[in-house]
TrEMBL record:
Protein name from the UniProt record: Nucleotide-binding universal stress protein, UspA family
Family the entry assigns: Belongs to the universal stress protein A family.
Signal peptide boundaries: none
PANTHER family: STRESS RESPONSE PROTEIN NHAX (PTHR46268), UNIVERSAL STRESS PROTEIN UP12 (PTHR46268:SF6)
SUPFAM superfamilies, sorted: Adenine nucleotide alpha hydrolases-like (SSF52402)
All residue ranges annotated as the UspA domain in the record: 24-165
InterPro entries attached to this UniProt entry: Universal_stress_UspA, UspA
């Protein structure tokens, strides 16, 4: 009797623990009032309806600072105050419009005044955000290469999963999902969220194993185990395995050849910067794909802030 009760308790614990990793209940969409974020907002609505989730409409008003011997001082405080008021008014209009059209979804609005990643991470913690959606142009000029675009800063800095929505994309349902197996970190958790999204979209998962010279045996073994676990399920599509050190290029090529709706990746960059002008895995995959990219991050992922908190005029300016 004792062991039977223990088994029930353990089963309940495992079920609760799995549900913690496989539910999307709160979606934050980053809005900058440009066309780039229109598709991201529409995607958030479609996902919220499928997952019965609420949406937080977020905009960040960045402060600019002079740093001198007396400490940090806000530059143009009146301007920042006006920008905040304008942003609040614009967000309210968007919220009201969305609420009228989708009265079965709960919409909240939030405005940040810190760096964009610090502002989002605060909301992630306070509101238990499961996923952040942001629009991306997919273009990396010299300025973005050095300072980082807003979408790239969000990807690198926030402490939960990030979905990058390409500008102008109309892909709001994910019926063909590409799931690469390229690193081992959090692979089980990534597969759980992949299966959840496939289930909610009545979609299929295509497993794509890819390994370079390093960790070939372990990645191949993990790929085979996941392939076996998907066999006979409603989400199974096809699987393939390739060996290449150009992982971002191969994943991008595979996504284009089969016209996938979504790529789900671990948030793990195994490639360091080779030179000042080289691209890491993240920038390569963003620049070479035209479909939404979901980077899975477990909630215990430590928050980062890869951007400056303002402009410091006490530092020398190059040139």
């Amino acid at each position: 009797m004792f062991f039977a009760c223990l088994a029930v308790i353990l089963h309940s614990y495992i079920t609760i623990d799995m549900e913690k990793h496989t539910k999307i209940k709160t979606i934050l969409v980053a809005i900058d009032f440009t066309q780039k974020t229109d598709s991201a907002t529409i995607l958030a609505v479609h996902m919220a309806k499928r997952h019965n989730a609420r949406i937080i409409l977020f905009h960040n008003v960045m402060n600019f600072y002079i740093i001198d011997r007396t400490g940090r001082q806000v530059v143009g405080e009146d301007t920042v105050t006006k920008q905040y008021a304008d942003a609040e008014h614009s967000l309210e209009l968007i919220k009201n419009s969305l609420q009228q059209n989708y009265n079965d979804i709960t919409f909240l609005k939030k405005i940040g005044t810190d760096t964009i990643t610090n502002s989002i991470n605060k909301i992630v913690e306070e509101e238990s955000v499961d996923i952040v959606i942001t629009g991306t142009s997919g273009k990396q000029g010299l300025r973005e290469l050095i300072l980082g675009s807003s979408s790239y800063q969000i990807l690198k800095g926030v402490s939960c999963s990030v979905l990058l929505m390409p500008e102008g994309s109309k892909q709001f349902k994910f019926e063909k999902i590409l799931v690469p197996v390229r690193v081992l970190e959090k692979l089980k958790e990534k597969m759980e969220i992949s299966k959840l999204i496939a289930e909610k979209n009545k979609g299929l998962i295509s497993l794509f194993g890819i390994s370079g010279d390093e960790n070939f045996t372990s990645i191949r073994k993990a790929f085979i185990n996941i392939r076996e676990s998907l066999k006979g399920s409603d989400t199974e599509d096809y699987t393939s395995f390739t060996v290449s050190n150009d992982k971002a290029v191969e994943i991008s090529k595979a996504s284009k050849d089969a016209e996938f709706d979504l790529i789900i990746l671990n948030y793990q960059d195994e490639e360091s910067w080779k030179s000042f002008f080289s691209e890491n895995f993240f920038k390569q995959i963003i620049n070479n794909t035209s479909v939404p990219l979901l980077f899975f991050k477990d909630n215990d992922n430590p928050a980062q802030d890869p951007e400056p908190a303002g402009y410091d005029i006490t530092l020398p300016f190059p040139g």
